[in-house]
Amino acid sequence: MIYSVIMAGGIGSRFWPQSREARPKQFIRVFGERSLIQQTLSRMTSIVPPERTMVVTHERYVALATEQLPEIPEKNILGEPISRNTAPCIAYAAIKLLEIDPDAVMVVLPSDHLIKAEDRFIKILHKAVDMAKNSGALVTIGIQPSYPATGYGYIQYDRSAHESNGIYPVRTFAEKPNEATAERFLDSGDFLWNSGIFIWRADSILSNLQLYLRSTWAAFQDAYARLGTDQEADAIRQAYHKSARISIDVGVMERASNVYVVPGNFGWSDIGDWRAVYDLSEKNRHGNVLKGNVIIHNSSRCLVNSGKRLIAIVGLHDTVVVDTDDALLICHQNSTQQVKNVVDYLHVHQHKDFV
Amino acid sequence: MIYSVIMAGGIGSRFWPQSREARPKQFIRVFGERSLIQQTLSRMTSIVPPERTMVVTHERYVALATEQLPEIPEKNILGEPISRNTAPCIAYAAIKLLEIDPDAVMVVLPSDHLIKAEDRFIKILHKAVDMAKNSGALVTIGIQPSYPATGYGYIQYDRSAHESNGIYPVRTFAEKPNEATAERFLDSGDFLWNSGIFIWRADSILSNLQLYLRSTWAAFQDAYARLGTDQEADAIRQAYHKSARISIDVGVMERASNVYVVPGNFGWSDIGDWRAVYDLSEKNRHGNVLKGNVIIHNSSRCLVNSGKRLIAIVGLHDTVVVDTDDALLICHQNSTQQVKNVVDYLHVHQHKDFV
Q1: pLDDT for residue B264
Q2: How much is the ipTM here?
Q3: Is A286 left (phi over 0), alpha (psi -120 to 50) or beta?
């Protein structure tokens, strides 16, 4: 059977002040009436029902996930005792799935991305699932790059050697490049953006963890033996503490031999910062994106999210304004990546109320 | 005796949202710990005590003026039933003063201006008072222009014909000029900025009102006869309704023959908008002026007034941010004159809570 595993451990500090530690990006309504994690669940329902969906998040967000995703059985919402990047998260979901279904195929998805063309996405996912189920391969979905982005990881694939049905062997995974390298990647035609979406059998990813991240594998192997006992929570806690803090990309995908990619084009974005929200939003004729009680005069290309208060904008251009009850952000469109620095500053200076 | 007449009828819509109809510019703390009207009173104390100070303001601000200026006897705070520009305001103060002192000399001052070099100002005022007391002339104070401002009225004076002690005959009063005219004014060396500060005997200004604004004079002449009776309030109301809406500059000064100016240089500003506040404020090394709970990152030449909330500014330049409990302004430094348009819009669209 096919299962979704929605990874929801991030804190989304680039979306401050709307996103806070108490309510990270995936749980807020960045677009439309539903939160990003609700949209992620919803777009999967044609291929995987909520009963076969797992959510892995930090313990402190389990209540929030349970509240926002009432369709998902509570036992499917897994709390991580500590944040250890994606490798332990995936190991945890894999042993839970293996326990209930030895043939489980996992579709691992970030909880906070946007996909505009959902039908196209589902078609590609079907291909990937077929490949993973039948071959035991590790399959990922790569995005056809539309510009030389420096904010994404890349996947180099072997265009000459495609299997049936538009699936290709992966050559390498590359970290976020600098501008010159990103240009080179784009020009080569061999590189795709790493979407962070993975498809594999639970037993396949565990075998690969055994080969390439042995201590993490061993830690979760111990926990696997104690699933369903009163020692389960303790066992998971120990497994997390024994695991290295490493992503599945670096820990497994870069090293494994049986790795494939399905290139796709379905309006994907990881919505990395407020600028991405602006770029993806519908604009008025002055290029403004306005939400709430806003008066705007001689201004263009602004994203303004008003909270409860009236906001008047005069002679302003290329600016992001996000207002909440207790904190306000005003940021140039070209500086939205630096919002993270503000959150870091607030942390260091013990402004705990605001992070 | 010398009396101050502080004119405090403005609504200061360019200082929205800190200034509102309920608390206009002169009653807010634009600089430092005291409101502008408190600073105006204070700088006059070495020449005129509070007991000889009159405040003329709209009826609705009498309570606010009484609260902010407890040193001034309540009977000296005069409420205008309707706003009719400065000519009726000055006629009202003149008849009140004439009633108590037939030799009263009035120093008429706007309530919402800034003067940095107060000692220099007081010296100039003494000259003007001497001239007005002894000659019956209408005397005004002109500011040596430091740039070709288009936001001020100008006074052309006769530099060749000065009386004793740096006092000159006025040739003309000119309205706010366009840029080319302002350049010409500055180059000529004959023009001063109109500070709106006037010095004259109460009987002199009334004689001139009789000559040049006869209906206003007649209306207040009627009221004068009823001062101190139970008809006083009614009489003043009638006088205002019978008076034309006109400034003393246009109504009298431009036409009168006995008009003199004392040029001065004492760090004067009418603080016409937020940009002026920025220009006059002490800046940090990035040119920012910050008040309240503000975090600023890679930003310069910003004026930020935080209310109760935290404001984070990232990658922003040349911007004014003014936050209050219910409304927030974000405005480019070059657009601060347009803040008035926002207030007009709020009026037209019946957003009465915000004006």
Answers
A1: 94
A2: 0.86
A3: alpha
Interface probe with B: pick from A330, A335, A340, A351, most Cβ of B within 10 Å: A330
DSSP A300: B
A98-112, A232-246, A280-294, A338-352: which has the minimum mean pLDDT?
Answer: A338-352
The pLDDT tens digits of the residues spanning A96-154 come to: 999 999 999 999 999 999 999 999 999 999 999 999 999 999 999 999 999 999 989 99
Nearest chain A Cα distance for residue B300, angstroms? 12
Question: What is the identity of the amino acid at B287?
Answer: G
Q: B340: exposed, middle or buried (C-beta count within 10 Å: 0-12, 13-18, 19+)?
A: middle
- What are the chain A neighbours of B319 within 8 Å (beta carbons)? 316, 319, 330
Angle, vertex CA B284, rays to CA B283 and CA B290, nearest 5: 75
CB-CB: which of A321, A328, A335 is closest to B309? A328
Subunit contact A327:B334, Cβ cutoff 8 A: no
Q: Could you tell me where the beta strands, DSSP code E, fall in chain B?
A: 2-7, 53-58, 77-80, 105-110, 114-115, 138-143, 154-157, 168-174, 191-201, 259-264, 268-269, 289-291, 294-297, 303-305, 310-314, 319-323, 327-332
Can you tell me the distance from the alpha carbon of B136 to that of B138, in angstroms, rounded to the nearest whole number? Answer: 7
Sheet containing strand A294-297, strands side by side: A294-297, A310-314, B327-332, B319-323, B303-305, B289-291
Q: Which of B309, B314, B354 sits opposite A342 (nearest CB)?
A: B314
* Residue (of B350, B342, B349, B345) closest to B18 by Cα position: B342
- A314·B339 Cβ contact <8 A: yes
Instruction: List the single residue in A312, A328, A329 with the smallest CB-CB distance to B342.
Output: A312
Of all residues in chain A, the one with the smallest CA distance to B318 is A316
Which DSSP symbol is given to A353? G
pLDDT at A13: 85
Task: Select from B250, B130, B148, B249 the least CA-distant residue to B189.
Answer: B148
Read off the pLDDT of residues A263-314 as tens digits, 9 standing for 90 and up.
999 999 999 899 999 999 999 999 999 999 999 999 999 999 998 899 999 9
| C-beta atoms of B313 and A330 within 8 A | yes
CB within 8 Å: B328 and A309? yes
For residue B175, the distance in angstroms to the closest alpha carbon of chain A comes to 27
Angle at A82 between CA A79 and CA A85, to 5 degrees: 95
Question: Which chain A residue lies closest to B313 (C-alpha atoms)?
Answer: A330
* Shortest CA gap B8–chain A (Å): 27
Q: Determine the Cα–Cα distance for residues A30 and A91; give it in Å rounded to an integer.
A: 29
Q: Which residues of B touch A317 (CB under 8 A)?
A: 332
| Tokens at B278, concatenated | 């920025």
Is the torsion defined by CA of A229, A233, A238, A243 positive or negative? positive
Q: Which of B315, B323, B331 sits opposite A315 (nearest CB)?
A: B331
Which pLDDT value is given to residue B316? 97
| Residue among B315, B334, B351 minimizing CB distance to A331 | B315
* Strand intervals (E) in chain A: 2-7, 53-58, 77-80, 105-110, 114-115, 138-143, 154-157, 168-174, 191-201, 259-264, 268-269, 289-291, 294-297, 303-305, 310-314, 319-323, 327-332
